[in-house]
Amino acid sequence: MQERFLQVPPGLDGTRADAGLAKLLGLSRTAVVTMLDDGGAQQDGATLGKSDRLRADAWLDLRWQPREAPRIVATPVPDLGIVHDDADIVVVDKPAGVAAHPSGGWQGPTVVGALAAAGFQIATSGAAERQGVVHRLDAGTSGLMVVAKSERAYSDLKAAFHDREVEKVYHAAVQGHPDPLSGTIDAPIGRHPGSEWKFAVVSSGKHAITHYETLEAFRGGSLLEVHLETGRTHQIRVHMAARRHPCIGDTMYGADPTVAARLGLERQWLHAKRLGFRHPGSGEQVVFESPYPADLARALEILRED
């Protein structure tokens, strides 16, 4: 059992308990919510709930059970495509249903586990469960990911993603027809106030910018090309849902389940189509592209036939 007794710093005054304690203790949001749900946090003697607010200079009495970090389990993923492989990087075409790396709430296959099973040696930089991972895709999103194999590649690519020097292009089929047909969504994204697993456009969120262009319009939706300027969790899904054009099949963010069923979709229609960056070894600009997987291609054909 871990125990801490400390004061709330002025910078966290008024912050929600779950967000503030995660920042104060360096723990994941999930770990902090578990501690709060177990009654392990008191502020000046009163038990804190996750939506309660921290008060500057109040005394916190905290007790929690540390969790073991998720382990990388070498598990083969037969349909994980290897698009490019060299001494510095490996670029994969990730199928849906595979997470980027292990996490507390995920029991399925992962990219790092699949690479380990295939004998790839990746960089040791980063947290133990996400070594070599410089960016992520949602488990339900297919497409291109680059993983660092050398320590130099890890440092260079992390900096490139942070400095917005990486070209990240997605294709998304959404419900309805965005107006205007091309545009930019500039809206901050943070944790959904009513759900531990969802995100939303909230004033206290992190800066997020999404550029989109309509490629095709159908009776039942639109195919968009999306360029990400920032890389927030669920960014495209949240921004399009906020415009009332959720990704088709994305029932978590309000998509019509009957449309998904008609198209045979069991996840959101969202694919990481193109990835471009400066190669950490050669210094040359490299660009990789991925075709639509079978489920998305089939759904798109049905939309076109309509």
Question: Can you walk me through this structure?
Answer:
It is a single chain. The chain has 306 residues and is an alpha+beta fold. The protein has three domains: 2-64, Roll (Structural Genomics Hypothetical 15.5 Kd Protein In mrcA-pckA Intergenic Region, Chain A); 74-163, Pseudouridine synthase; 164-306, Pseudouridine synthase (2-Layer Sandwich), CATH 3.30.2350.10. Helices cover 21% and strands 28% of the residues. The protein has seven helices and 15 strands. The chain has helices spanning 17-25, 29-37, 111-117, 151-162, 235-242, 257-263, 294-305; strands at 2-7, 41-43, 46-47, 59-64, 81-85, 89-94, 142-148, 167-174, 182-186, 189-191, 199-201, 209-218, 221-228, 270-278, 285-289. The strands form three sheets. Strands 5, 6, 7, 8, 9, 12, 13, 14 and 15 form a nine-stranded mixed sheet that branches. A four-stranded antiparallel sheet has the order 1-4-2-3. Strands 10-11 form a two-stranded antiparallel ribbon. α1 (17-25) packs across α2 (29-37). The protein is globular and about 65 Å long. Its EC number is 5.4.99.-. GO terms for molecular function: catalytic activity, acting on RNA; pseudouridine synthase activity; RNA binding. The active site is at residue 138. Keywords: Isomerase. It catalyses: a uridine in RNA = a pseudouridine in RNA.
